[in-house]
Amino acid sequence: MKKAKCLAIVLSLFSAAPAWAGGSASPAPVPEVEESDVAVLPPAGAHWMFAYFSFRNLAQLIDGDTGKQLGGVHIAQLSNIAFSPDKKHIYVAETIWSKGNRGTRQDMITVYDGRTLKLDHEIPLPGRLLAGDRLNTFSISADGRYAYVYDMAPASSVIVVDLEKRKVLPPVEIPGCALAFAAGNTGVVSVCGDGSLAVISHAGGKAEVTQTAPFFDAGEDPVYDNSVFDAKSGKGYLLSYSGRVYEVTAGSGSGAQIAQPWSLQEGAHMPRAETKPLVVNWLPGGQQPVAYDAATGRLYVLMHKGEFWSYKEAGEELWEVDVATHKVLRRAALDKPAMSVAVSQDKEPLLFLAEPGGAIHIWDAATLSEKASAASMGPSHFVVAP
Amino acid sequence: MKKAKCLAIVLSLFSAAPAWAGGSASPAPVPEVEESDVAVLPPAGAHWMFAYFSFRNLAQLIDGDTGKQLGGVHIAQLSNIAFSPDKKHIYVAETIWSKGNRGTRQDMITVYDGRTLKLDHEIPLPGRLLAGDRLNTFSISADGRYAYVYDMAPASSVIVVDLEKRKVLPPVEIPGCALAFAAGNTGVVSVCGDGSLAVISHAGGKAEVTQTAPFFDAGEDPVYDNSVFDAKSGKGYLLSYSGRVYEVTAGSGSGAQIAQPWSLQEGAHMPRAETKPLVVNWLPGGQQPVAYDAATGRLYVLMHKGEFWSYKEAGEELWEVDVATHKVLRRAALDKPAMSVAVSQDKEPLLFLAEPGGAIHIWDAATLSEKASAASMGPSHFVVAP
Amino acid sequence: MTSQSRTERFVRKLARGTSRRSILSRIGLGLVSAPVFPLLPVERAHAAKDRSVQAKTSFARHAQTTDDTKCDYWRYCAIDGSLCTCCGGGIHTCPPGTEASPTSWVGTCINPDDGKAYLIAYRDCCGTADCGQCYCDNTDRGNQVYRPQENNDIIWCFGASSMEYHCSTAVMVGAAE
Amino acid sequence: MTSQSRTERFVRKLARGTSRRSILSRIGLGLVSAPVFPLLPVERAHAAKDRSVQAKTSFARHAQTTDDTKCDYWRYCAIDGSLCTCCGGGIHTCPPGTEASPTSWVGTCINPDDGKAYLIAYRDCCGTADCGQCYCDNTDRGNQVYRPQENNDIIWCFGASSMEYHCSTAVMVGAAE
Prior knowledge:
CATH architecture of chain A: 7 Propeller
Distance between the termini of chain A: 38 Å
CATH superfamily of chain A: YVTN repeat-like/Quinoprotein amine dehydrogenase
Structural class of chain A: mainly beta
Structural class of chain C: mainly beta
CATH architecture of the largest domain in chain C: Sandwich
Shape of chain C: globular
Oligomer: heterotetramer
Distance between the termini of chain C: 15 Å
Radius of gyration of chain C: 16 Å
Largest sheet of chain A: 5 strands, antiparallel
CATH topology of the largest domain in chain C: Electron Transport Ethylamine Dehydrogenase
CATH superfamily of the largest domain in chain C: Methylamine/Aralkylamine dehydrogenase light chain
CATH class of the largest domain in chain C: Mainly Beta
Order of helices and strands of chain C: HHEEEEEEE
Strand content of chain C: 15-25%
Helix content of chain C: under 10%
């Protein structure tokens, strides 16, 4: 707007009939003096979410109903962010050097008040993995008591943080495994390089690690780090590059149950995709390629046509999948390719879709039609309100 | 390139006549094992410059002859950067908080080796002004012995830093004035809000401030902070929004001499621009709107057609002006608007022009024709090798 | 145009009046409760007094009074940065989690509804990273850092507990008589 | 495709082999002289052994061997980040002022000139901000963080004196026999 300049050489004829007098029938009275103040948020809505990009410093809190930005939380590069289950706090797991690119390393969970977004306190951490675009290197237990931070320094461990006591418990080492999906109130699921899971249970104060048998081919058809897990139900869905879905149940007692995998393509009446080269299939892809609506049991997956090893490719379609029947219920073409998808966890769910350039599309999940839009600062990820 | 994907459904017919066999008549032998190493710069060339943007963390060292990036120096947001006159060091004046957006404030000059670009040492500062797009809040004396840092906290002062002894001298307060143009070996010129200059001389160890009479109308026709000053000759050119040029001579003894101002437009056979509204003139504009070639006595000014108060508008033309005759020698149309201009200080000068989006055009100043190009990370500024 | 209006004299007085021995010049930036530039300029701007319709800038001629999330909203004649109205705040309200700087730069903007000039304080909201929404850079009577209170490139978070810029508000100070 | 190649076993062994009591797991990140992943994998990759022409990926089919400042240069089959060749460095050389990380992730890339597979170590140059030039994100056999040495999203500056990522090199380790 401001760059639209009138370049007529002399504008002095302008004097008559000022443009600004046209529109306004009854001009509002101009207040004399205003005071500055600071906004406080209303109680968190079910359609709120954070959009953030690993290499920018603001996590934008956005109301999905309007696309409007409600506020922002400062995040260091490569941070994680989470709501507490009661939405009263915002947690940022972050790593900051005392002189930007040098100086002393400081790892911490920074706790913000959910209504004022003011910094409440910091809980120092012994470390955390620094990696781009990772959602499941940080999670919160179903009851909100514990936070789990994945660290690789380079030995692998999960750092269990008592959020109530603001205390870090001894790290639980998980050699050869990574990630920290909260499962229930005292469980954590990690994925291992041999295609198995390591399941931590820290009920009763002492952490125990159980290892499942290998069940997926981690070399030839890996499952996405940014797969989905619902801490409350202890049910998660690991999605592989080729579109295999592994249902995992954990969090009550030790270990985890893994169901027989099924194929996204078969759910859409196609042959299942294989990993062999020189074949083009419909495949999942992107940075946050899958979302899970725990209430309806629906997965939403970003799909593109491509050859194998194109697992970072943006989605051309969004597939809605029923985890009970393994059927693809609907396929929606995307006007613009999307890197990330998320779904709100309420009775009238919204879908959030992020373009690589930062544009966010917000859809009504019932109709798969666009309801609002927003702007973010890059190929963003989403963290939805619990 | 990498996104250009072949979407033929099945590519298995590919087997015959591999594409990669075509081009290469005698394939180079592939070395068995390589060692990692780190590059060291050759002695600094006269066509080297830094391109940087106030809100990004890398100052790019670019060779103007090729447009190639030779290396980079980390800068906090809102930093200044300078070469030492002998090009043996790089100085960054920067402000870093110990926790990014919070914690302890740390102001410093960070000194890098000019060949290895390794951090050599830091000189803590008592403060500095934080402002976007400012070039002359930091400068180096002609002999390289002193650095001058402008601080507003909010009282105005110039911090004199002995770079040899790595020591900060007592700040010199310059109430109502700002900026710190080095003039000679022990002089600093600041511009004041009443249209005068404050001239610091710290020869003999004790700083003295001399005030000139007001000579420009700071309210109605301000001179750009990003005007130009040559520390060696003690000659500078303050450029006003309307295109008035004030030649300033300082640095030998106390005070400063200001010549009768002249008009860019009159140098181009136009009526001089006035400050009154509703008139469109050719006016200077941009972020770094003027460059000075001290050897040839030429100014290069980014000019646009606009109304008064459009002083941040990008240039549509580059005007080459002779400071001796006040004549505009050449006017070059710019294919893309430019926000910044700089000129190398050697016998075969290059011009650097920055688009708002970050593209950099490098011209031969003799012919005003493009010689190379480069890419930067935003509406960048330039600091050329001395 | 008056070249020595009261606004200008006010600003200059303010800038020069900070004597080298003044307690103000010793105040650190962490001290929230002691704004060193006044919260609200007590003298009213005068520059725009004799601004007739002919004296209007391009911005003023095209400004509107209905949508404060757009760069051409009338109060934004000299704003630079992200509009707080797009960041969870309002025209004089900082977004949650930020702090209104006690210091500000000022502009004199004309309200198209009554054709009168008003003094606007552009108060930055500080403490978290740049909001990044609705970026505007309007320059009516914008000045340089040697006239700091008319300069919109300075990080105007002096006196706030953090110098990190988030967004800018446009607070009505009063009519420029 | 071999699903349990030696490369994979090697990587897994490496990852799992870091026992909880291992001295390695106690090493801080500041210790430059003690790389915790090996400088050069001593066992050679095997995955690509039986890669016929038919087994080539899209990247390999379109790769070139003449310009190492382009994303389709053959060694970059699994690189993610800015090419050091565009940042003042070279194919195995870090730009001035940065430090070559002693740790790296690896890829197996096919050289179109001889059709053979080679093991490439993608060694990050660390210490200053992202170079921002020639950004590439190639994904041949790219894996997830639970197979760290095949993952290109991790900041591979372990063992360097700064974890700040600048650019990535593609160091030839040897033929994948």
